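Morning F.,

Quick status update on the modeling queue. The single chain you submitted on Monday has been processed. Sequence for confirmation:
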Amino acid sequence: MPTLLLRLAGPMQSWGTTSRFDQRDTSKEPSKSGVIGLLAAALGIDREVWNDELKSLAALTMAVRHDRPGVLKRDYQTAGCAAADKMRRANGSLSDDGVTSQRHYLADAVFLVGLEGADRNLLERAHAALQNPVWLLALGRKSYVPSEPVWLDNSVVDAPLLEALAAKPWIATPRRWESAPERLLVSIESQDGSGALRMDQPLSSFAERRFGARYVRSKWMALPQEDINAPV
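Structure tokens below.
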């Protein structure tokens, strides 16, 4: 089956699946709900809509190659915490209580994401939309914008998911102190229920926010040394 490849690279990324109120988490890799949401933004699918196209995107099988895992960071935010500050409540009244929030994110991470499905036309439409998105593309939060284009040249390939990921050169920019990897971690959706549970399978519109279970297993993938730093 054909596979669509995406590049998710940016100084800050956050892929939370259990965030509530003022506590915002992130997983170590892009969530499926986050990636499908990014494609929905590119295609202009409203967050209130749960149509056939969005259902088809959610049905794709996803895998993530960790080209640069990034560093987990915590952002401590405050609002209205100074002595003279007043916070306005939802009912319009004023409060002396400030609000604090802890928001986790991945710094300097780069991922190669693959989405596999039988409908090549759907993958082609998504690829075209990423080059000319309807709405702003973000890496988990609206303020976390990609540092490089999400789309890649010739990124709809006629190859199974893992084969498509293995054939792509390393997409991270090497640093002076960084050794070229001989292998990379890959997280792939499990079809037999093995692996770690993830509650990020979209089941409804993003406004309704209902997510189901899927299972993800991890493995190491060898990266041919001759392919490192080759054009992507």
